[in-house]
Amino acid sequence: MDSRYHNQDNDSNLFVNLSHLLLSKITNGLIDNIDRVCLSLVCKRLYNERHKYLSFSTRYIKAIKEDITNEIYLNSYKSILINSINQITNCTLLHDKQKHIDKIASNVNQVEFFTDFSVHLEVGQSITEKIYQLMANSNVVKLVACQTLRYQLPANLVSLAFDSYFNEPLEPGFLPPNLKKLRFGFRFDQPIKRGVLPERLEKLTLDQMFSRPIEPGVLPLSLKVLKMNSNSWFNKNDLKVGSLPPALEVFHYSGHCSELINGILPTTVHTFIGVPFTWINSPLFQIYRNLKTLAVHASPSHPESFLDLNVLPTSVTKLIIYDDIHLKSVMPPTIKYLDISNARYDVDEIFTNDRSQYHFETLKVDGFTLGSLENIKIDHLHIAFRDEYGGEGLLRDIPNGVRYLSFRYCSAMILLQDIQVPESVEFFKVDCNNQYDHIDFIPNALQELIIKDDIGQTFCSLPELVNPLTIPTTDSEDRIFLRKLDDSNYLIFGQSNNRFIGAFINQSQLINKFLIKLK
Questions:
Q1: Which domain of life is it from (predicted)?
Q2: Which of 188, 368, 401, 466 would be 449's cystine partner, CB 3.0–4.6 Å?
Q3: 470 with 479: CB under 8 angstroms?
């Protein structure tokens, strides 16, 4: 075609001639930065005028080095990216415990101390007191990895998280009065007395070593979320009537099998993670009609635990079975999120002949538990592996109609290359691709492939047909996006381990180099 006619067509194209204001609104509506770059490559005008409308989202650019210029190979977009980073209003100051600082910038709202699980270096008194003084006169409202209460914490904090080594006694007045979120670390195991916790506290997390009883009146009436993450089945934090505040909404419990007494659990709770098996089988459990999410633990004293699905409150829409529990009876069709990857069941018993009544937004099942899931509407099917692969066995079939398919890593993932993936699958997520000799089992209609390659192996190959490719890193908040531009060229954009990378790269020459560098 004559270039004159081609240019005339572009000149009259409505999209190409949109105002900068409209283009800015369009790009700001794109969640992924890699899509914003691709939009600017649509035509010559959008590329040449990119500085007038283009900006980058800082959603996945959390904390990066002061000098990132050496890691940005997209020279045409470098100034736009740096300008976007400089406009972040909710920055985190990462403090390395040995540097003295004289001020905290006005766009910093969180301070985080570096924490090393292998070497715990205590912050010196002068440094600690100085940074607390700076925080008191700044916009900082969040402190992460706090190591000690020996020095007065700033009163303006609304969120406080202690590091994993903190285990100091607590007294009234030690904690900032305006706290709304409070998290204790792994080793904290001190009694909590009445009056210790701030009256405005809304969320409290007690980690795995905490084994103290919670007496009535200790938790503030304002508390909405309580997470007790203890691993112990037989810990000492038995609950009493009045231990839990009356307006509690979210409760994470250890699953400790104490007796369910009328009035222990507030009826306002809608999310209960770690329900003791003895509780869910109690007739008293039926009164909790606000429950939407349940995650059930087995009873260690009854290894052959059976759960009659008829006892579930009719309000439940999300059900997670943590342990080796035998499911009996029929699954309620009101369940929209179901995780039975650890459970035992007869698929034809729990799903009736009329499977058209089921619609799961997410269904998680064991990969070695055979049984057809056909005629059940499933948006997202997640295949987990309860047992390690011993070289024998078959993976269950993937039913037609699934749009999002994901797998949790196990040595059996080598079997994936032999499965039949339905053409209905549009999104495919897999933990690691170093197990596969070939990846032609991925359907041609796939819209996005997500590879979570975080177990220390080299990323080995890229699919030929998939356009968007997302590579989550070891940090769940960091992501590296890869976009195929033509047969051999890719655009890479993202962050890993506080390092930013952006570049146009050639698959045959640079792909492994870049991805290995980011590990």
A1: Eukaryota
A2: 466
A3: yes
Sequence-ordered list of residues with C-beta below 8 angstroms from that of 127, at least 6 positions apart, any chain = 97, 98, 100
**Residue 497 is encoded by which pair of tokens?**
């381990």
Range of the domain at 419: 351-472
Answer for the pair 180, 155: CB distance below 8 angstroms, yes or no: no
Pairing of strands 159-162, 293-296: unpaired
Write the single-letter amino acid at 470.
Answer: T
Q: What number of CA atoms fall less than 13 Å from residue 37's CA on the CB side? A: 23
Q: How far apart are alpha carbons 467 and 23 in whole angstroms?
A: 24
Q: Is the pLDDT of residue 54 over 70?
A: yes
Cβ atoms within 10 Å, residue 434: 15
> Which residues make beta-bridge pairs with 17?
none
Tokens of 98: 């040995």
| 140 in any annotated domain | no
What's the CA gap between 351 and 363, in Å, rounded?
A: 13
Residue 299, phi then psi, degrees to nearest 5: -95, 125
The token pair at 91 is: 């920055």
Q: Tell me how far apart the alpha carbons of residues 355 and 377 are, in angstroms, rounded to a whole number.
A: 8
Please report whether residue 89 resides in a domain. Answer: no
From 17, 14, 60, select the one nearest 36 (Cα to Cα): 60
Q: What are phi and psi of 280, to 5 degrees?
A: -70, -25
Give per-residue burial for 313-332: e unless 16+ CB within 10 Å, then b: beebbbbbbbeebebeeebb
CA atoms of 214 and 192, how far apart (whole Å): 7
DSSP class of residue 428 equals: E
The CA R_g of the chain, rounded to the nearest whole Å, is 27
Torsion of the alpha carbons at 16, 20, 25 and 31, rounded to the nearest 10: 70
Q: Is the dihedral of CA 273, 194, 200, 205 positive or negative?
A: negative
Q: Does residue 242 fall inside a structural domain?
A: no
Specify whether the CB–CB gap between 212 and 189 falls below 8 A: yes
Q: What is the pTM of this model?
A: 0.81
What tokens does 290 get? Answer: 């606000």
Under a CB-based contact definition with an 8 Å cutoff, are residues 473 and 479 in contact?
yes
E-assigned strands of 71-141?
A: 91-95, 108-113
Q: pLDDT tens for residues 26-49?
A: 999 998 888 899 899 988 899 999
Residue 495 contacts residue 489 (beta carbons within 8 Å): no
466 assigned to some structural domain: yes
- Cα–Cα distance for residue pair 23/16, rounded to 1 Å: 10
Q: How many helices (H) and strands (E) does the chain have?
A: 9, 23
Average pLDDT over every residue of 436-441: 55
Q: How far apart are CA 263 and CA 367, in angstroms?
A: 40
SS3 category, 285: helix
Cα distance between residue 431 and residue 95, in whole Å:
32
**How far apart are the C-alpha atoms of 144 and 92, rounded to whole Å?**
10
Segment holding 132, helix H or strand E: helix 125-136
Query: What is the number of domains present in the chain?
Result: 1
Give the confidence band of 379 by pLDDT, cuts at 50, 70, 90.
Answer: very high
